[in-house]
Amino acid sequence: MIKLNGTIFGSEEFSNGEVSYKPVEINKSEGLHRGVNRIDLYFQNNKDITDLQFAVEFIRNEDFDAEIHLYMLYVPYGRMDRPIKGYAFSLKLFANIINRLNLDKIITLDNHSKGITDLIRNVYVQDINPYIHEVIRLYEPDYLFFPDKGAKNKYPEILDKDILDTHPYFYGEKTRVLDDSREIISYELFNGDLNIVGRKILIIDDICCTGGTVIRAANIMKQRGAADVALWVAHCENNVIKYDIVREESPISKIYTSNSIIRNYRIPEIQTIKRENIITRFASKI
Q1: CB–CB of 35/63 below 8 Å?
Q2: Does pLDDT of 282 surpass 70?
Q3: Spatial contact of 38 and 5, defined as CB atoms under 8 Å apart
Q4: What is the DSSP code string of 133-155?
Q5: Average pLDDT for residues 135-147, to the nearest whole number?
Q6: What is the rounded distance in angstroms from the CA atom of residue 233 to the CA atom of residue 205?
Q7: Distance CA 226, CA 60 (A)
Q8: Is 210 exposed, middle or buried (0-12, 13-18, 19+ CB in 10 A)?
Q9: Contacts of 88 (CB under 8 A, 6+ apart)
Q10: What is the rounded distance in angstroms from the CA atom of residue 70 to the CA atom of residue 40?
Q11: Helices (H) and strands (E) in the chain, counts
Q12: Are the C-beta atoms of residues 235 and 205 closer than 8 Å to each other?
């Protein structure tokens, strides 16, 4: 789905598959001041990429000099971040499409790969700490947990010091089959001197597809006596509701996520956190 200045752009289709784009009011340039227009991309399928191109062309047709900011918290094809034998280098192809749009600013959140900022121009990565502070306020965990080597290396570097000072962390590592299946064959938890018995654990990761890795981790934590396990994931795919992670027997009691992907689900196991709501809540206390 694409929103242009807060209005859905391109939601109606003709019977032959062509899309009906209704005009949206844009912020036009006045004198030396460039009009600033915002596009939000909530990726559901490749139609959204086409809609994005139409939205950019629409703005430039109305005001060629207007400034365009793209809020693309989840970057499509971000996991295909390197050439893999037998597959096109999808992130590079997507980056080429985006770069040709010559956007003034692209705002993302907790990118899965550094390759995104290497390949796409004018990317600004949103600070994840306001989200984590809000999740900690809501869930009140005792410890944080990073479910794989990538998360273990990334989050201690980018999380606020006060978060890490008040919430000790530990991590896990997985071993996968080295073939196209990428199946996890073993998983090990490293909690060192931390006694997790009776504790609440918050898993922190960037993206959740089926929840296989975090379910493995949470099951081990529960076996070792953890009282409760929840998950913060920046990008939660819609398909997650089809898997064990949100079922009654799941070892994970709650999923907290941004509004980058997840859509139209009102189930108690998933809570969406919007940055604008966080900022508004904190501002009201000042």
Answers
A1: yes
A2: no
A3: yes
A4: HHHHHHH--SEEEE-SHHHHHHH
A5: 97
A6: 5
A7: 55
A8: middle
A9: none
A10: 6
A11: 8, 15
A12: no
The tokens describing 214, both together, are 């975090």
Whole-number Cα distances in Å, 56 to 43, 50, 75, 79, 241: 16, 10, 17, 25, 33
Q: Which of 106, 147, 109, 101 has its CA nearest to residue 128? A: 109
Average pLDDT over residues 113-129: 93
Tokens 């004018």 map to which residue?
Answer: 122
Instruction: Dig out the tokens for 187 from the structure.
Output: 């998983």
CB atoms within 10 A of CB 58: 18
3-class SS shares of the chain: helix, strand, coil, % to 5: 30, 25, 45
Q: How far, in Å, CA of 68 to CA of 88, rounded? A: 29
Output the pLDDT for position 283.
46
E runs forming strands in 51-148? 67-71, 105-109, 123-126, 143-146
Q: Is the pLDDT of residue 39 over 60?
A: yes
CB of 143 closer than 8 Å to CB of 171: no
Report d(CA 203, CA 258) in Å as an integer.
Answer: 15
Distance CA(241)–CA(257), nearest Å, equals 13
Report yes or no: 172 and 188 within 8 Å, Cβ to Cβ: yes
Residue 50's contacts (CB-CB under 8 Å, 6 or more residues apart) are: 19
